[in-house]
């Protein structure tokens, strides 16, 4: 009787652990990294360091918000890094007309990329990974056609935006927080958000229910493209340079990691914006920790890969229960 009870309790305990890891593991990871750095990393607890971390995480978070929408619809957007590169090229081309027109041009460029990939997915039936992979290659190539080499950006407004702050909080962090709140409201409180989750949960059922599946899918990738373009604009403002060759490289990896670790399942039907924010912070803290302890950049990529595998495994085990 005891063995039988023990045999029943072990799977239950395992399921509970996997559920806890998916729901709260990212917050535990952020807390653990913060405590580690407070104890073992020199000069970690300082206003300047926290400001630096906030500035660096902002573009990753903004891109991850769009990625969360794509993954929530049971898709993925591999083109986000290349859209950032296209955005920085457009900023350089249109900055002579003013920074806000350059921002508009960058956002329109990102939305067009999202429209193309979304149309391939919604109307032609191309798999999201294939459609966005094509855009990833094409947008990067187009960005290099528009701007073949690195170019310095000289604009007072962009310099202030990229390096300024309010009461010690960087403008970039405030913009990222505002966009996170906007996306969270969209997912939880709007018809579009509810339709997105329904499509991600079961596209055939959504079609039978009469939901505008094609329109919603296109809007998902348009939003992802626009957010990636905004991230490209802000990264350009921070760096004070347009470099389409390197800007956004491997950003899709960081964004997917933040979303998956934050508890949004790859199977779709759920979007956790709070978890995505924590996931982006986790990736930034992990990167900063490895750098501050003199580990090579390749170690960061390996660590991110391990985190993704663990997060997907936890989600898979939970799905079996």
From TrEMBL:
Superkingdom of origin: Bacteria
A cellular component term, taken from the record's GO annotations: plasma membrane
InterPro entries: ABC_transp_permease
Pfam families, alphabetized: BPD_transp_2 (PF02653)
Keywords: Cell membrane, Membrane, Transmembrane, Transmembrane helix
Subcellular location, record wording: Cell membrane
Stretches that traverse the bilayer: 24-41, 53-71, 78-97, 167-187, 216-235, 297-315
Protein known as: ABC transporter permease
Membrane topology category: Multi-pass membrane protein
Key word Nucleus present: no
MF terms in GO: transmembrane transporter activity
